Structure formats: C-alpha cells, structure tokens
Amino acid sequence: MAGNGNVNGGELRFGNGTGLQNGPSKIQTQKKQNEVCHDDSAAPVNARTIDELHSLQKKKSTPTTPIKGTQGAFAVISDQDRQKQQLQSISASLASLTRETGPKVVRGDPARKSETPKHVTHEHHHFTPTISASDSSLKFTHILYNLSPAELYEQAIKYEKGSFITWAGALATLSGAKTGRSPRDKRIVRDETVEDDLWWGKGSPNIEMDEHTFLVNRERAVDYLNSLDKVFVNDQFLNWDPENRIKVRIVSARAYHSLFMHNMCIRPTPEELENFGTPDFTIYNAGQFPCNRYTHYMTSSTSIDLNLARREMVILGTQYAGEMKKGLFSVMHYLMPKRQILSLHSGCNMGKDGDVALFFGLSGTGKTTLSTDHNRYLIGDDEHCWSETGVSNIEGGCYAKCIDLSREKEPDIWNAIKFGTVLENVVFDEHNREVDYSDKSVTENTRAAYPIEYIPNAKIPCVGPHPKNVILLACDAFGVLPPVSKLSLAQTMYHFISGYTALVAGTEEGVKEPQATFSACFGAAFIMLHPTKYAAMLAEKMQKHGATGWLVNTGWSAMVLGIELSFLTHGKSLTPYTPGSLLNANYKKTEVFGLEIPTEVEGVPSEILDPINTWPDKNAYNGTLLKLAGLFKKNFDTFTNYKIGKDNKLTEEILGAGPIF
C-alpha cells in the first residue's frame, strides 16, 4: 500500500510508509508558509462562553408605544423603568394586610440566576408596619410575568409533575384531587356594598361570608404565594368591547394555571401591556394550599371567596382551573348590569349578512354544536355581554368538554387541540402520547382550553351587532315539547328564568326515566342578581332591537324520528336564524304551555311539528305533559315572591306566560 499522497499542496504522510502493520499511524500535515488551517464554512460565533452563546438565542422584546405626555412621536419609557413600574404594581397586589408591605420582587426564573435583573422592587409605606420583619420579607419572590405558551410549557414540564406534551402538541396536566368546580365552597362577602344588590336566600347560588373571614383566607393565600421562590402573574382583559373591558390580574403558583388563563382571558398586545396599570380585579390562586377548616364559614379544605368591594378573589384547596374562569364570570354578572349591560351564559354566532343569534342551553342541549356552525362566524361559545352597541364575547378562549371527543363529531375542537392548548385530566398512551378521549380513569370532566383564534371561523375581534334571534335550547327527554316554538317576550322571560332541560338518567328494567333539570338563566351557579333582573333586561333589549325568541327542543321527540340535531344545523328551515318561512309561517297554540308552533314548514314533515303526533298513546302524552307542567310550576315557585320595579305588573306578566292547567 502506498505510504504518501499529495492533497492540495499539503502532503499527508501515513506513518513511515509501511501501512498499518505497526499499529495506527500518525497523521502529519505540511502547510504552506503563513497559511492558517481552519474551517472557513462560516464566520466564527460572536461569543466567548457557552452562556454568551445561549444569550444570543433570545432576542429581547422592546415595545415601542409612545408614552402619553412625552414630547416627540418616538418617545418611549425605558425597559428598566417599565419593569420597575410593573413590579411595584405586583408587589402591591401581594402585600400582606398585617405587615402592610409587599414582598421584594424580581423578574425572571430563579433557576436562571444570570438573567435576574439587578434592580429589586419592594413596596414601601410611610408608617410602621404591624409586624416589622418576617422570613418572607427577607427573601426575593421571582415574578414570571405574562409568559408565552412556550415558556409556560418549559415551566410545567420541568417543575410540575403530571405535565406532558401530547402527540398533537397540547400540554396535558392534572388538576389534583378536584376535577370540577366546588359550588358549595364558593362564598361572597356580604357587606353594605352588595347587601341590597345580590340575590340571597332560597334558590340562590350566593353563599355569604363576612369581611373578616375573607381577609383571613386572603392572608393565608398571600402568605403562601409569598413563601414560594416564584409566582406566575398574568395581566389580561375581559370583554372584547373596548369601552367596557375589565383589567384582571391572576397571581398563581402553577404554570398550568397561568397558561389556562392566558388562553381563556383576552391577551393584551405588548403595547397594551405597557400601560396596563392597576388591575380592576385580582385573583389570588393558592389552590395547592388548603384553607383552615377551623376558620368561620369553612366546611372543607376548599374555599373560593369573592370580595366585590375589594375586587378580589381568593382560591384555596382546589387546583381546578375552571374556578378562575367561572369566578370571573360571576364578577361580570355583577359588574356589567351596573353599567346597564346584560351578561349572558350563552353561545353566539353571526351570519355573513350580520345577523346575530344567541344560544342558551344547559349541558347536552347542543349549544356548542349550534354556535360553532361552519356556515357562520363564531363570536363565542360560553360568555357574552349585550350592550347598547351590540354583543361581545367576555373571554379570549374556549373551554370545551373532551369526553368521547372525535374528529368526526367535533372537527373544530379536535383541530384546536394543538400547541398552546391545555388538556385537563385526560389519559394518554405512555409511549406515543396519543390521547384516549373515551377514557374516564381520572374523571369524566376532561377539558380543553384553547385561544378562540384556534377556531377557523372565529370572528376577531369577538363582537357583533344586536342579535336578531334569541334561541333557548331544551333537550326534552319527556318528549312533549315541540321541536320549535316562537315565544312572546313574556314567554321568553319565563323560559329563560326556568332554564329547563331533561336528560335520560338511566335504565331500569329497560325503561328510560327522564330527569328534569332547571338552572335559572341557563347558568344559575354563576348569576349574582335575582334571575328576574336578568330576564327583564333581556326582554327590554329584545324589544328595543327587534329580536325574536325561540324555544328549540333538541331532545327525544326529534331523536325518535331519526331527525337528530342535523335538522337544526344543515339547511332545513327549522333553523330559526336561517332566512326562510319560519317567521312568516302560520302558527297555532299548544295546550297547557301555550306555545306558538308552525303548522307547516317547507321541507319538514308537518306531523313532527306537534309532538302529540309522535305519541301513539294520546292519554300517555297528556299525562306526561301535565307532569312536566307541574315540574315547571314547582320550580318557578322560588321566583314568584320577587317584585320587579315599583309594582308586580312585570312579575305577573312573566307568571302568566307559564303553563296553565
């Protein structure tokens, strides 16, 4: 074997020319004079250490919104001053009521010490604190402020057990022992601020507590959050109507909670975040830490407390993220009516011609399916406001049920589960991370939280003109309500207050037993005022803007005929918002409930329009009809003694719209 060879002017000599007989040979090079041997495929990196190299990966974000009152179109506040102002505000939010001072806060992850800013913010006061020193006052609390989904993924995967990235890119998390809301542990401070406004007593979801107990729980939550090395802070908005939006601050201990609220609230632009200032409402989520069960009013280790005077919410003893979403919805149910804005638990969409429809319905009635019609723009799927300018979504995201989810049944939700989405309590394959949506091992209440922009036909911004149709949905398993009925204003109020549906509870000896469910305003757990107040506002706005009320039965009577929900969503004229013959149809009044039903609709068999025709045994139909009417009456007894306005005229009008038998 030859022992030498020339390579572009530099001679390579393999050992002494004897090949490989004496072991590995030395490789020698001969260079031309003044020539440097290097890899010239790219310029050398502009870093002297690995840390410097890593720092080059991330480009700093610098908002450029001009500050009000400064001279020059391009005058901006320095990044250091902006961060200082933000930290001062956050420190004030975390101030202990006994120590009268906020914690020392710095921005950044404590695990990345080299990135911690040099300046520290401590909220100082000009008086002697009640307690002059504590361990928490000697430490720094790191603030992870409005992190992006990618940053929150990193935090969750690294520090929160039970966090995984699924095959679709969503973040799968666990909410701990609580996998749903705890309505019996939700309390509201009853003081002079809300004493006369809120609905108290029989039938009300509002459980009272006193100011002192709230402050005890607030102190417990704040002390817990201040004891941590880091907390997550989200500054965001509620309500897409810019004239009536609410600034909210969420302080939490988990990346899961921060990402959930990032998705569910409206996300501010960097420019809006610059001038965010003091929040209108603050949530202290210390859900990993229990409340003290010896504290007055406490009945378990869980407590969700609202103080409307202080504009604060405290969460202890539950990590279920839905408590934050629905807690803020309750707040909006109080704040918006004070501005003569109606807050609604409804879906909302808009046609290409600008016709808006509102959908009210309890679980299983088809509200989500109808509001996410592919032929219409989605304004929102759950929480809305109706003001003098039109409708607006309260939220910035969707919180969808995932149990038995499939691509075929719910393609929009299926496709929205991707990077940035939070998947709560789902079960997945340990190897390929593919989610099994039929698995109820953790809970049946599996959920996905994602930004509304993940829905292809979402209307951004999520606002629309005044609704033309208000659709109340009922899945009537008794089979006695018509498929579709046109409602008077009084009937709309009556059925809105009732919030009825009936689902099949189970099977015993082959017989299906329907079970009626009533939920005032189709969301009793979240309303703050008496239901008749919301109903009166709804009727007033419908009358003013010419909206028509409809009662649509998506339940048993339609199902037995094989019509299912499709006749409501795919071109049939039974869809109230579809231009067609419904508004101009001839109507007749049903017995007992007095509902106006069409006698004939093009393309729809006339016999299904009146439910009595679907019953072979007419006596059985009449008996079931009277039974359901009795259930309505019994439920409405809760509301009969409430007077609206100076007299009982409106109350009597609503009562007169109910069943007569």
TrEMBL record:
Places the protein is found: Cytoplasm
Enzyme class per UniProt: lyase
A Pfam family it matches: PEPCK_ATP
GO cellular component, as recorded: cytosol
GO biological process: gluconeogenesis
Protein name as annotated: phosphoenolpyruvate carboxykinase (ATP)
Organism listed in the record: Fagus sylvatica (Beechnut)
One GO MF term attached to the UniProt entry: ATP binding
Family annotation (InterPro entries): PEP_carboxykinase_ATP, PEP_carboxykinase_C, PEP_carboxykinase_N, PEPCK_ATP_CS
Composition-biased stretches (Basic and acidic residues): 32-41, 106-120
Region Disordered: start-end pairs: 1-47, 98-124
Enzyme Commission (EC) number: 4.1.1.49
Alphabetically ordered keywords of this record: ATP-binding, Cytoplasm, Decarboxylase, Gluconeogenesis, Lyase, Nucleotide-binding
Annotated family: Belongs to the phosphoenolpyruvate carboxykinase (ATP) family.
Gene3D superfamilies from the UniProt entry: 3.90.228.20, Phosphoenolpyruvate Carboxykinase, domain 1, Phosphoenolpyruvate Carboxykinase, domain 2
PANTHER family noted in UniProt: PHOSPHOENOLPYRUVATE CARBOXYKINASE (ATP), PHOSPHOENOLPYRUVATE CARBOXYKINASE ATP
Catalytic activity, reaction form: oxaloacetate + ATP = phosphoenolpyruvate + ADP + CO2
UniProt keyword Glycosyltransferase, yes or no: no
Pathway per the UniProt entry: Carbohydrate biosynthesis; gluconeogenesis
